[in-house]
Amino acid sequence: MKTLLNIFLFFISTVTLNAQIIEKPIETFYEPNQPKHVYYKDVNNLLNKYIGTWKYTSGGHHFKITFTKHTYVRETPVANTKITIYTDKIIGHYEYKFNGIEIYNVTNDYFADSDSGSFKFDGFGIYFDEPSSNPCGRRIMGDVNLVHLNVGGVEKITWNRTNIDWGANCNPSDQSPFKIPSNMVLTKI
C-alpha cells in the first residue's frame, strides 16, 4: 500500500511540474527554445506607453483609436494542443471618418492585437484589418509598426502599415484597398 501511495504521489508531482506555467518577459516571445507552458508577461511595462486614446486628423481623414491592455490572454497554438501560451496584449478599438462621413466604427469589436510581443527594433508590431461586408473577409492584412515618441512633452505614436497578402480563405475575397492611411502620426488625447 505504501508503494502504491508513493507511486501515486510521484505521478501527481510529475504532472504538476510538467504543467507549470513559466513566466517570461513578453519581449522574449520570439526567442528560440521556449518552454511549452509559458506566460509572456509585460513585466517591464513596455506596452503601457501605447495605452490610451490617440487621434490623427489630416486631409479629410479622421482616425481615432483607443488601445487597452489585456493580461493573461490564452493563445491557441496552431495544431498543437500540448502547448499552453498566455500573453499580455494591446487591443485597439477605432473609428474612421473621411470628410466628416463615418466609414468605420469598430468600438464594440476589436481589430487588432499585439501578436504577443512582436517587438521590433524601434517599436511594437500589431496586425490590422479593416471591416469587410464580404463573408470571405479581406485578402490583405496590415502589419503595423507603432513607435512611441515624446515630442516637446506631447505623446505621439507613428503608425506605419505594410500590407500582407494572406491569400484567399474562400472566394471571392474582398480585394478592395485599405481606406485608412498607411502612414500617420497620432497624438494622445
Structure description:
With 189 residues, the protein is mainly β. Helices cover 9% and strands 46% of the residues. It is built from one helix and ten strands; from the N terminus they run αββββββββββ. The chain has one helix spanning 2-18; strands spanning 22-25, 37-41, 52-58, 61-75, 84-98, 101-106, 124-128, 140-151, 154-165, 183-188. Strands 1, 2, 3, 4, 5, 6, 7, 8, 9 and 10 form a ten-stranded mixed β-sheet that branches. It is globular and about 80 Å long.
Mean pLDDT score: 82
Query: End-to-end span in angstroms?
Result: 68 Å
The SS-based structural class is mainly beta
Order of helices and strands: HEEEEEEEEEE
Short description:
With 189 residues, the chain is mainly beta. 9% of the residues lie in helices and 46% in strands.
Keywords, please?
189 residues; mainly beta; 10-stranded mixed β-sheet; 1 helix
Write the layout of secondary structure elements.
Layout: H1 2-18, E1 22-25, E2 37-41, E3 52-58, E4 61-75, E5 84-98, E6 101-106, E7 124-128, E8 140-151, E9 154-165, E10 183-188
